[in-house]
Write a structure and sequence with these properties.
By secondary structure, this protein is α/β, with parallel strands linked by helices. It contains ten helices and 16 strands. The strands form three sheets. It has a seven-stranded mixed β-sheet, with helices on both faces. The protein has a five-stranded parallel β-sheet with strand order 14-13-12-15-16, with helices on one face.
Length: 372
């Protein structure tokens, strides 16, 4: 199977078997959570453009619907990031009145920030959206396809969606076609550089069939007739962001030197990180809990086993009382820790460390706290 971006030859470097196909589906029944469908991960690397993808990915395994819940909107840390990002894009773009399209809009929180009380209106596409339409934001609860929109948009936004798409070249071309000739197209994906350099096994899961280095994202845009004007990383270097417009692209880039070495060392780095946490769990006193009931927790327990945690804490009421896909570990509210009295709280995403420590202090919970 050639590279879906540049048709280069792939190199296999990391394999996982029997991982949950969904990481953020809501399960109110523990047996159902444990019985979730499973798939394989075979990560391959294209030395020509730098794309990493799962060649064992089967999109038919996935179902994005109302019980799919990736929202991070309960976190003030994330909401502050979202607000600053929307302000930056609006300042850069200086859009006139008209409509903005967001593909993979979730519950439309970011689209609402872009539209605000100004001259813009928003149109979103997401089959898992649970938000009611407002006066300025309308959501189509279905997958986006080329040719769906009769009019072109003043801007096109696609955040944390492209990594789920098994045919990214055609998808980005469809996004480009939905934009007016001079309109910006904004993309945000997980940054594969950090995943590779840190051996971040907690960020490898079935839903993500693509992992982008800047070079691969730039080349993917060029195939769609888009020139990347700005590219930057954000949110603790976890996200790669790019703003592009219709224009001839510069000469094709190649992956920076050293990426091939990081790919070659990735499996060993993952194994070392798993071994660290096995030892850490064995030494910790009292119950161990994870803070974060999302994808990172599912991946962590897939590698460490369900016995690694008595519970996963999440501030999102929609998740509380449910169970993590795969392991069936219960998801509880933060106040449950008062009675549970954990000895170790493992923070799934270090970006939230200050927010979490403040909440533990407010609850009077004394425990060791360590981030992945």
């Amino acid at each position: 199977m050639p590279c879906p971006v540049c048709a280069g030859a792939p190199q296999l470097f990391h394999q996982l078997a029997s991982v949950p196909v969904h990481s953020v589906r809501l399960f109110g029944d523990q047996a159902a959570a444990r019985a979730i469908a499973r798939g394989s991960i075979e990560l391959v690397f294209c030395g020509e453009c730098g794309l990493v993808w799962n060649r064992a990915f089967d999109p038919k395994q996935l179902a994005y619907r109302a019980d799919y819940h990736p929202s991070q909107a309960c976190s003030q840390t994330f909401n502050d990031f979202h607000r600053r990002l929307a302000q930056r894009l609006l300042a850069d773009w200086q859009l006139p009145h008209g409509e903005v399209l967001e593909v993979g809009c979730g519950d439309g929180e970011f689209l609402a920030l872009l539209c605000g009380s100004g001259p813009l209106r928003g149109v979103g596409y997401d089959p898992a959206c649970r938000r009611e339409d407002s006066g300025r934001v309308r959501v189509e609860r279905r997958h986006f396809r080329r040719g769906m929109c009769s009019a072109r948009f003043e801007a096109v936004v696609c955040k944390m969606t492209l990594e789920h798409i098994s045919e990214p070249a055609g998808f980005v071309s469809a996004l480009a076609e939905a934009a007016k000739p001079q309109a910006p197209v904004f993309l945000m994906v997980p940054d594969a550089r950090r995943i590779l350099s840190e051996g971040a096994f907690e960020d490898v899961y079935y839903e993500h069939c693509n992992y982008f280095l800047p070079d691969a994202l730039q080349r993917l845009c060029a195939r769609a007739g888009l020139c990347v004007e700005q590219m930057w990383c954000a949110y603790g270097e976890q996200y790669l962001l790019a703003s592009a417009r219709h224009a001839p692209a510069p000469p094709r880039a190649s992956p920076p030197s050293g990426v091939a070495d990081q790919v070659a060392c990735f499996a060993a780095r993952c194994a070392a990180k798993v071994a660290h946490w096995q030892a850490r769990l064995a030494d910790s006193p009292g119950p161990r809990v994870l803070w974060g009931g999302g994808s990172k927790a599912v991946a962590f327990l897939s590698m460490l086993g369900e016995q690694a945690a008595a519970a996963a804490v999440d501030i999102d009421p929609a998740k509380q009382g449910g169970f993590l896909p795969g392991s069936g570990v219960p998801i509880v509210a933060p106040q449950s820790l008062v009675a549970l009295r954990p000895g170790l709280v493992i923070v799934m995403n270090g970006v939230y460390l200050a927010e979490i420590k403040a909440e533990l202090a407010r609850l009077g919970v004394r425990a060791e706290v360590e981030a992945l």
